[in-house]
Amino acid sequence: MISLLIGLAAGFFGGLVGLGGGVIMIPLMVSILKMGQHKAHGTSLVALVFTGISGAVTYALNGSVDILASVLLASTAIFTARAGAHLANALPEWKLKRSFGGFLILVSLLLLLKPYLPHASRHVTGWLEILILLLTGIFTGFLSGMMGVGGGTIMVPSMVLLTGFTQYTAQGCSLLAMVPVGIVGAYTHWRLGNVSTSILPGLVPGILIGTYLGGSLAHILSEGVLRIIFSAVLIWTGIRYLRTPKPQTGEVNYS
Fold first, then answer.
1. Which residue windows are transmembrane per the record (predicted)?
2. Nearby residues of 236 by Cβ (< 8 Å), 6 or more positions away
3. How confident is the model over 125-159, as pLDDT tens digits?
């Protein structure tokens, strides 16, 4: 039941703002389910695949998906996602928590800046647009594999700020592109033993339902107040992770 509620919460916020939901899912799995950081990251990537599928379908039904842009993003991201997953497994857990804390704070700042991004540039077309999408995919794939998130926090702002996509189309493309990226990262983490399969039967249905509800709501409601609340939660959680103490010399952390 708890895993179902976590899936609902992560899916709803993920669908609403075009993210994979890992920024909500991972802290909840660590704090409530007492899951280790590495396993939470790996499990999050498995759930991320279903977030992307449900979210992409919901946004496509509202005409907010550019399939070609999604393919370009995913084509480079799938290669760097595996490298990110291996780096995450090699890092000590306290370093991973601090890195994730910094990542959450970065996410919150990007979300707060969203209202200003559409006015930053005109729509870019041609080879420049293709190059921007490919480079964005490289970075977000690595981020997805390392942090257990979909990379939408980089994809969406990059598409809106650098190529001039509308907010809704950028979010729809991000959700679709994260499906193959999530599959690669999830498979790598599964081989490394970083996936908790026992919670997936509850987590996945929650993700599917929550993402559909969040994606539908995104097309009829303003994101302003929810974005501020969500950003505040991310900042608070990020600060907690940044304050993770370094283990004493000789102390080994197996969680």
1. 6-30, 42-61, 67-88, 100-118, 130-156, 168-187, 199-218, 225-242
2. none
3. 788 889 999 999 998 888 767 766 667 777 877 78
